[in-house]
Design brief:
Elements (H helix, E strand, L loop, with lengths): L1 E2 L3 E7 L4 E5 L2 E2 L7 E8 L2 E4 L3 E7 L4 E5 L2 E4 L5 E8 L2 E4 L3 E7 L4 E5 L2 E4 L5 E8 L2 E4 L3 E7 L4 E5 L2 E4 L5 E8 L1 E3 L3 E8 L10 E3 L15 E6 L5 E6 L3 E3 L4 E7 L2 E3 L5 E3 L2 E8 L2 E3 L9 E7 L1 E3 L3 E11 L5 E12 L2 H7 L3 H18 L3 H6 L11 H9 L2 E13 L1 H131 L4 H9 L30
Antiparallel strand pairs: 1-4, 2-3, 2-5, 6-9, 7-8, 7-10, 11-14, 12-13, 12-15, 16-19, 17-18, 17-20, 21-28, 22-27, 22-29, 22-33, 23-26, 24-25, 30-31, 30-32, 34-35, 35-36
Helix pairs in contact: 2-4
Length: about 575
């Protein structure tokens, strides 16, 4: 049996085993040794550089030959031989190979690299783009590692992410502050050297809500040089809390946050317009909590439009008062310690002041005193609260009010009536002023005419006065002479009357003296008679009383047997002269 180089001899021995002898070969059949000999065609498997030969042996072993390669099929050794296309994975500088082996391990091979897939070693190979993050001079990279560490890398820089090391990368903008802005930054202090237990102070309150006195403790605080300062405390402590520092950064500045720093998040009242929160607001808006969420504070005078709703006057009138509040944030540290919603505190304090003011006034009284709502003295609660929060109240402007439709309609109708009356009054006043002006012009013209007439008359009177003056002088001389004669005559008559009156007075005095003398004599006689009667032991009181009783002027006596009906009329006696 002869086999060429493309053939082989299949020899089956007597003992049962089989051998394949590759050609070229020549073999003689021996009946004592060989059972069967046959010439078989040789199966040749060739793989190029882009192919691989997959060999499955009879014992179950697998093998792979990467081309260029050549393998001849041996039925006694091989179970299956296949020529397959070779899987090549190539990654450039912007890509990487994610290789997962059959033992479960995963490896990231950074490009440029080439890898041939081997099913005996590799479970899966993928070409993935490498995540590339770039930060310019105004940015920084916030890197979160898989082991929990964080790192902020300031730009300009470039970072290619290894997903087995890095969990997440963010490109963040540096915080830029203008000259009138400020930022509140918190920083967690890192321990230097040996691990140090940090504690945060908290205040313990007794049951009566007063600060309880606790025993003195000491807190170890890491200093900038790595040393330890021991500070005695009088309050309780929470174990395991990290020490945090707070600082206020004022602009102009550009801030790159470290990995152990974070910004204070402000959540204040504000108005929402077009989906955005506004601190200033607009006329008639409604302030809602948590409408403003920001980090940067404006350290400059600012203003707020605010409408105080549900205001009740003393006579239960429903009002909405519109205000504009001007304020300025002066002390940021005081504000941070005193409040977590500055705008909310300002609005609540302003509402309290307005409601207090309106509650003491009637509707008409409120309208007459609206000018007081533009004075800062009218807002004591607001001024006090803003002073506590490190804010200055600069000005309050009253912008009007609104009320219910019915009351507003009544008030507007009253305004229309008053305006109509005022316009009518103004029209009447203008008409009267026109008439007054006409009268004044007529009066001025008449005055001029009278002045001319007066001048003419005055001249005429002056000429007449001169003639009259001469006549009066002559009549005065005649009258003086007559008066002098009459005065002499009256003086003579007066002297005669004076002499006669003196004589009459002398006669009257003599008569009075004589009458007085006669009266004394009568009294002396009567006194002597009374003394004589008294000596006779007569009751003088009764005696004098009997004489003092009035005596009737007339006695009338009527004698008759029957009781007649009589009407008597007596003449009235004439009064006696003294």
């Amino acid at each position: 049996f002869v086999s060429s180089q493309d053939e082989y001899l299949c020899v089956q021995f007597v003992d049962g085993h089989v051998e394949n002898l590759r050609g070229p070969r020549e073999l003689w059949f021996k009946w004592k040794e060989h059972e069967k000999i046959s010439v078989e065609r040789l199966q040749r498997h060739v793989a190029t550089e882009m192919q691989v030969i997959c060999i499955t042996y009879s014992n179950g072993r697998l093998a792979r030959l990467i081309g260029p390669a050549e393998v001849y099929y041996d039925p006694l050794v091989h179970q299956l031989i296949e020529v397959k296309a070779l899987k090549r994975y190539v990654a450039d500088e912007q890509h990487a190979l994610l290789v997962q082996t059959r033992d479960g391990k995963t490896e990231l091979v950074r490009g440029p690299v080439e890898l041939v897939f081997d099913p005996c070693q590799h479970e899966r190979v993928e070409v993935k783009p490498v995540e590339r993050f770039v930060a310019d001079q105004q940015q920084y990279l916030a890197v979160q590692y898989r082991d929990g560490r964080k790192e902020n890398i300031r730009g300009p820089t470039e970072l290619l992410v290894d997903p087995f090391v890095v969990e997440r990368v963010e490109v963040l903008q540096a915080v830029r502050l203008a000259a009138n802005e400020a930022l509140v930054v918190y920083r967690r202090v890192q321990a230097v050297g040996a691990p140090i237990l940090f504690t945060a102070k908290t205040e313990v309150l007794a049951p009566n809500c007063t600060s309880a006195k606790s025993e003195r403790t000491e807190v170890e605080v890491a200093t900038a040089e790595g040393g330890v300062d021991r500070a005695p405390l009088l309050s309780a402590e929470v174990e395991g809390a990290a020490h945090v520092e707070r600082r206020v950064v004022h602009g102009p500045a550009i801030i790159f946050l470290e990995c152990n720093e974070w910004l204070h998040e402000f959540s204040w009242h504000g108005s929402i317009k077009n989906g955005k929160g506004s601190k200033t607001g607009y006329s008639g808006d409604e302030k809602v909590p948590h409408a403003l969420n920001f980090n940067i504070l404006r350290c400059m005078p600012d203003q707020i439009y605010y409408s105080v709703r549900d205001v009740r006057s003393r006579d239960d009138a429903h009002l909405t008062v519109h205000l504009m509040l001007f304020y300025e944030l002066l002390e940021i540290e005081t504000m941070l310690d005193a409040t977590n919603d500055l705008i909310g505190d300002i609005l609540n304090a302003a509402s309290a002041d307005v409601m207090t003011f309106a509650a003491s006034q009637t509707y008409e009284g409120f309208l007459s005193k609206t000018a007081e709502l533009s004075r800062i003295d009218t807002f004591p609660i607001l001024s006090s609260r803003m002073a506590q929060t490190g804010t200055a109240l600069l000005k309050v402007v009253y912008r009007g009010y609104s009320t219910s439709a019915q009351l507003q309609q009544m008030h507007e109708e009253a305004i229309v009536r008053r305006t109509k009356l005022r316009l009518e009054s103004d029209a009447a006043k203008e008409e009267q002023e026109t008439r007054t002006m006409e009268l004044q012009c007529r009066e001025q013209r008449s005055a001029k005419e009278r002045e001319l007439e007066e001048k003419a008359t005055r001249h005429k009177l002056a000429m007449s006065a001169l003639s009259k003056e001469q006549e009066r002088k002559q009549s005065d001389e005649a009258h003086s002479l007559q008066l002098r004669h009459e005065a002499d005559k009256a003086a003579a008559l007066l002297a005669q009357d004076r002499d006669r009156h003196a004589e009459e007075l002398r006669h009257s005095a003599d008569r009075a003296a004589e009458e007085m003398k006669q009266l004394r004599e009568r009294l002396d006689v009567e006194m002597g008679r009374n003394n004589a009667i008294a000596k006779l032991e007569v009751d003088m009181t009764k005696y004098l009383t009997a004489f003092a009783e009035p005596r009737p002027d007339q006695h009338v006596r009527i004698d008759t047997e029957s009781s007649p009906n009589l009407h008597l009329s007596l003449p009235t006696p004439a009064p006696s002269r003294p």
